[in-house]
Design brief:
Order of helices and strands: HHEEHEEHEEHHEHEHEEHEH
Radius of gyration: 25 Å
Largest sheet: 6 strands, mixed
Helix content: 40-55%
Low-confidence stretches: 1-8, 56-72, 193-203
Strand content: 15-25%
Strand order of the largest sheet: 6-5-4-7-8-11
């Protein structure tokens, strides 16, 4: 027994040391947000590829090929001359070789701004293993921003936290990235913590009303993102999806996201925590109390039936959310706050 306890204690110590080492490599404490930890993703931007996976449309010249063919800078193909074709585009070499008139077609280049909407609301202020979900979301936003800069895309978007938000119009080069990273750290540091008082029904009722308002704010932020996203944009929404569980505001938020997806390439990045997927293991049966700031529930750790039921409910909720978000026409990618982005992108998730 003594040997087993010593072995378990050593394993916990090793896990703790590994976590601290990983946090040090990320220049983070897992809770707060600094410019230093966001700047280091400049060296990791090649972990992702923002090449368009969807045909896009736009009006301005840029780095991406549109699906409409006409006069432009990028040669596309040669075909038989048709009535109405521009005679200046006739390919005389192919015409002389084949004896039939051929014309060149060009594919127009268009610009594709990259918009990133990052959710830093109170629901994102949770983490049980490595990082807060809000910190992981900011890391992901920084990674996307630096990669967009390397590709020459203009970067803009939205950083929001319940009733607060910072809207950033697309800007080019490094200035656009630094502007966005500054908004992330600024809004994250401005968030106010509301202490939870026990056995106060009036406060619980007030918090329930506040939660409904927060979900309404999420709907408003989706509307702002819809207004900001011009046709042909690549749009990333980074959130935990908690606000989409509200039956009142969810349909309106989904409607805005669906409208964005019709004219843009929309990617929804859902950040979750390991504790939201499964209960931690325990060799002893321990009664613990969970709270989301409004509701309280007591669970027993170390009980197989409780753990299985908890995991099944989490899986059912996950599948429901997946179907709901896929109905918008967006691409849905899942990330965990319990692992570094580099680990997940190398061995699983793909942007």
């Amino acid at each position: 027994m003594w040997f087993n306890r010593q072995k378990k204690s050593s394993a916990k110590s090793l896990n703790k040391d590994a976590t601290q080492s990983l946090l040090a490599s990320l220049y983070s404490n897992g809770i707060d947000l600094s410019m230093q930890e966001l700047l280091q993703y400049q060296n990791k931007s090649r972990l992702i590829d923002l090449a368009g996976k969807k045909n896009i449309q736009g009006k301005q010249a840029g780095n991406y090929l549109s699906r409409s063919k006409g006069r432009g800078m990028e040669f596309d193909e040669v075909r038989h001359y048709q009535t109405g074709d521009d005679v200046r585009a006739i390919d005389w070499r192919v015409t002389a070789r084949t004896g039939k008139t051929h014309t060149k077609l060009f594919r127009e280049e268009i610009e594709r701004p990259v918009l990133v909407a990052t959710d830093l609301s109170q629901n994102m202020n949770f983490g049980s293993k490595l990082l807060f979900k809000s910190v992981q979301g900011a890391h992901l936003a920084a990674l996307i921003a630096w990669h967009a800069k390397i590709r020459g895309d203009r970067l803009g978007g939205l950083v929001f936290c319940d009733e607060q938000h910072i809207e950033l119009k697309p800007r080019s080069r490094k200035a656009g990235v630094l502007h966005y990273l500054h908004a992330l750290t600024t809004l994250n540091n401005q968030k106010k913590q509301t202490p939870l008082e026990e056995n106060d029904s009036a406060l619980d009722k007030q918090q329930e009303t506040t939660t409904q308002h927060k979900n309404h704010y999420f709907e408003q932020h989706c509307a702002r993102l819809r207004h900001l996203a011009k046709p042909g944009s690549l749009v990333y929404l980074i959130t935990d999806g908690h606000a989409l569980r509200d039956e009142k505001s969810c349909p309106h938020a989904i409607r805005h996201l669906s409208q964005i997806s019709k004219h843009c390439e929309l990617v929804l990045c859902l950040i979750s925590d390991p504790l939201e997927q499964a209960l931690p293991e325990s060799s002893l049966k321990l009664a613990v109390t969970f709270t989301d700031g409004i509701n309280r529930q007591q669970l027993t750790l170390g009980d197989n039936n409780t753990a299985e039921q908890y995991q099944q409910q989490a899986l059912a909720q996950h599948e429901k959310m997946q179907l709901l978000l896929q109905s918008t026409g967006a691409r849905v990618i899942h990330f965990s706050a319990g692992e570094s982005l580099e680990q997940q992108l190398k061995y699983g998730a793909s942007l």
